[in-house]
Amino acid sequence: TFYYLVVGIGGGAITAIAGFAAATYLRGIDWIAIPTSVAGSVDAAIGGKTGANLDYGKNLVGSFHSPRTVLIDHSWFATLSDRDFAAGLAEVVKCGFISDYKILNLVQEDEINYSELIRRAVKVKAEVVSKDFRESRLREILNYGHTLGHAIEKDSKYKLRHGEAVSIGMVFAAELSKDLAGLDSDAVELHRELLNRFNLPIKYPRNRWKSLATLLLQDKKVKQDKLRFIGISRIGKPVWLEDVLSSQLAIVYERIAK
Question: What is the residue-level pLDDT of the chain in tens, covering all 258 positions?
């Protein structure tokens, strides 16, 4: 008797492809994720989403197939560039804004406990996914900052890291939340302060809005050409922003453009 097992060792793209291979071979075999990046550890390897990007857009080929286990060894992170390490932290900060405010406290300390940060971020995602594996509703909160972020990634021809694009997307989502969900201005400014702390980008060129607006309509959360965003009404309280007008988005984008 043979036991088939796929082991994915690498960044988020590697573990996602490994999981997709496991999902499709013999209609599904076991796999293990061993992420070697911060982004892979707190995002890509957690939650069972597997697959790959296509030229047309993000995550268009894939399957839901959870790994048997995820092994996170922080010693891998020593191999990362400062840029890649910081890009991964964008997903950690996101977890702080949508769920665990203690993450936001931890990232402001003089001596940051990265192990605790990653543990908390993994816990946030795992708890959400356990309640909504196939993203029927609740799991969408994990897309905070991702709607515009995915459009920015594609517009940059993937020269920006995923976390860098999400960083800009979170500032945009916060500004949109201020207008549509009553988010306090101090909370919006906190986005900029914390992301700046890790030298993450928070602005994108003003002249790219027309391209981004087109790309937004390709997002998987668009229903009948109606734009939907995840926002927050306060830290730790996600809200769904439905049927957002393109004119409103353009106004908000002006505030985060350079």
Answer: 789 999 999 999 999 999 999 999 999 999 999 999 999 999 999 999 999 877 776 778 999 999 999 999 999 999 999 999 999 999 999 999 999 999 999 999 999 999 999 999 999 999 999 999 999 999 999 999 999 999 999 999 999 999 999 999 999 999 999 999 999 999 999 999 999 999 999 999 999 999 999 999 887 666 666 788 999 999 999 999 998 988 999 999 999 999
Q: How far is it, in rounded angstroms, from Cα 70 to Cα 68? A: 7
Count CA atoms within 13 Å of residue 77 on its CB side.
Answer: 19
**Closest to 84 measured CA to CA, from 41, 27, 133:** 41
To which residue do tokens 């804004």 refer?
97
> Which two three-digit tokens encode residue 45?
């390897």
Query: Is beta strand 49-54 parallel, antiparallel or unpaired with respect to 237-244?
Result: unpaired
Facing residues of 70 across strands? 33
Radius of gyration of the chain from its Cα atoms, rounded to whole angstroms: 18
What is the distance, to the nearest Å, from the Cα of residue 176 to the centroid of all Cα atoms in its chain? 17
Q: Which long-range contacts (CB under 8 A, 24 or more apart) does 236-242 make?
A: 236/97, 236/98, 236/99, 236/100, 236/101, 238/98, 238/99, 238/141, 238/144, 239/177, 239/181, 240/140, 241/176, 241/177, 241/180, 241/181
The pTM of this model reads: 0.93
Distance separating alpha carbons of residues 102 and 109, to the nearest angstrom: 11
